[in-house]
Amino acid sequence: MIHIITDTGSDLPKQVMDDLDIIMLPLVVQVNDEEYFDRSTIEPKQLYTYMKEGAAPKTAQVPPSLIKETLESIAKKGESAIYITLSSGISGTYQTAVLMKNEVLEDYPDAKIEIFDSQAASLGYGLMVYEAAKQAKDGKTLDEIIHTLKHYVEHLELIFTVDDLEYLLRGGRISKTAAVMGTLLKIKPVLHMEDGKLFPLEKLRGKKKVLGRMVEIMKERIKTSDPISTIGISHADDVETAQALKELIIEETGNKNILITMIGCAIGAHAGPGTIALFFLNTPLKES
């Protein structure tokens, strides 16, 4: 049996995790001098309420002891595991997981454990976890699943926008001058991910224009007319805009295979309420 493990930065809906027996480990959120486990002792909507009231949350990686305990319990049973982590470019969880794996291998040298750096965030690697878990259920081998994950790393696209530039300022993504001017001019940035890190792409005025441009970029980057895998949309407490983006994608591409989810605390703490993100493969999956 191959267990698929991930952390709460993947923003997968609970129903999907339950249906596919995905093991979810919580990232840590610190807000108002309290420490919480993402989606366990604090839910995203509560965090967004705190942020709208002026709180400036911080996040931390999954506790090492929890990673080791999880991997050890699987190794004891002689079963296999793939832990798909939040991008090492924005979190230390991947490096910690590798260390914990090595500790487990000292006691269980024959254990088959893979730690995989998604090089993605939010539902971007949620889609990777989703596909890996489906393949594990279908009886695919460890190598076959890793092949699929590598395809996602090479071909996954992330396009997103934020509602308030203040949160990007706090995270050091933009300058104070850019944040002030952007707010005054009602500028909304379009950002994307390269090599596991976030970078600005374009600046537009008005939410409607931004959504239209996100779909245009998606169409420009998809390199085939063949059907692509599930498209992901994640939102930070703005389901109406997420739904509008979904309808626009269907209208423009005819693709209805779209999964919508709320951005959890681990990612939302940095992006802020109102963030909208779009994830898709620019090349469809091929059989290994």
Automatic annotation (TrEMBL):
Coiled-coil stretches noted in the UniProt entry, renumbered to this chain: none
Keywords: Lipid-binding, Membrane, Transmembrane, Transmembrane helix
Membrane-spanning residues: 258-281
Pfam families linked: DegV (PF02645)
Alphabetized InterPro entries for the sequence: DegV, DegV_C, DegV_domain_contain
Superkingdom to which the source organism belongs: Bacteria
Cited function: May bind long-chain fatty acids, such as palmitate, and may play a role in lipid transport or fatty acid metabolism.
NCBIfam families: DegV (TIGR00762)
Entry protein name: DegV family protein with EDD domain
Species of origin: Fictibacillus barbaricus
